[in-house]
Amino acid sequence: MLAHDLLALLDALGIDRAVLAGYDWGGRAACIVAALWPERVRGLVTGGGYNVQNVATSMKPQPPEREHALWYQYYFHSERGRAGLAQNRYELCRLLWKLWSPSWPFDEEIYKRTAASFDNPDFVDVVIHSYRHRYGLVSGDPAVEDTERRLAAQPPIGVPTISLEGRDNGVSGFHAADRHAHHFTGRYERRVLDGVGHDLPLETPRLFADAVLAVR
Known about the structure:
The chain is globular. It is an alpha/beta fold. α1 crosses α2. The chain is built from ten helices and four strands. It has two domains: 116 residues, Alpha/Beta hydrolase fold, catalytic domain (Rossmann fold, 3-Layer(aba) Sandwich), CATH 3.40.50; 70 residues. It starts with a helix and ends with a helix. Helices cover 46% and strands 12% of the residues.
């Protein structure tokens, strides 16, 4: 659905082709559009490489240190987690920011600008459904079933791409080897950013913008 929202935004703005750039959920939307509708994409900047979820393999155990980093996702699988997010959304998400970007000394004012969105009436429902759907625990939106079927094949991305990876990413961790290169069939470059965690556009806006300009 995120990718369809992105396509709808491009249509609403009258943009036929664009450079797409994002990380986390935004990076997932950008990667999906680049993979399935490449005619709409001039280039891609993706935080963390290939962000298309592989629901079919989502229940395969990972090394313990990786499972530890994903604790919040498993927390959201329970009704206790739903209640915890609803009750403590400001504090919980602030903790996640700190864990995901441990070397970034963000201040309260920067955090508050994003935290305002946590009060949206559908925030909890959207977050909980996303983290349950990616593990195959709940069904997706029937309106995008065809897209889900296409994504299950893990389609390659052929548009020019720059992948940005923070060496201090507390979510996915850092891997010296490029595990995602095989998903990209066009011009592709991986850039590793020292002293940078998960939130690439906020932590290092200049390097993020440089990548956008370079991939066009």
